[in-house]
């Protein structure tokens, strides 16, 4: 996997007790990275192209009940946002961090951000769509 740091402010609209994500409770701070799937199954058991709008949450927050849940990720510098589906866990992410697929990262990033690999962002968990 290829990782690139992206600055994020995670405002996840749900945070389950302990480390999980629950709807309605904001979580802020953290780093988002982007990654390639390389045809591998994510922790939720599915294979997606790198253009799919998916995300991996920190292993410490992951539970199978999050599979298929949606996060709205906003680039706070530009106001662009994208809705991603949780499909994997991220072992290298801190508790408030996540990985975005290339497709999700590129949907949010302008050319300068793509070159730097950094996007200031916030995330809010949505109800399952």
Automatic annotation (TrEMBL):
CDD domains hit by this protein: DPBB_RlpA_EXP_N-like
Domain called RlpA-like protein double-psi beta-barrel: residue spans: 29-119
Pfam assignment, any one: DPBB_1
Keyword Signal: yes
Signal peptide interval: 1-18
Keywords linked to the UniProt accession: Signal
UniProt-listed InterPro entries: Expansin_CellWall, RlpA-like_DPBB, RlpA-like_sf
Name of the molecule in the record: RlpA-like protein double-psi beta-barrel domain-containing protein
Annotated source species: Rickenella mellea
């Amino acid at each position: 996997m290829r990782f690139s740091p992206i600055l994020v402010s995670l405002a996840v609209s749900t945070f389950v007790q302990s480390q999980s994500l629950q709807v309605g409770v904001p979580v802020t701070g953290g780093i988002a990275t982007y990654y390639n799937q390389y045809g591998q199954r994510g922790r939720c058991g599915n294979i997606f192209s790198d253009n799919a709008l998916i995300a991996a949450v920190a292993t410490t927050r992951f539970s199978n009940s999050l599979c298929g849940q949606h996060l709205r990720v906003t680039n706070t510098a530009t106001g662009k946002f994208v809705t991603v589906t949780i499909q994997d866990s991220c072992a290298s992410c801190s508790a408030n961090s996540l990985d975005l697929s290339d497709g999700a990262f590129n949907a949010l990033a302008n050319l300068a951000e793509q070159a730097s690999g950094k996007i200031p962002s916030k995330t809010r968990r949505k109800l399952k769509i």
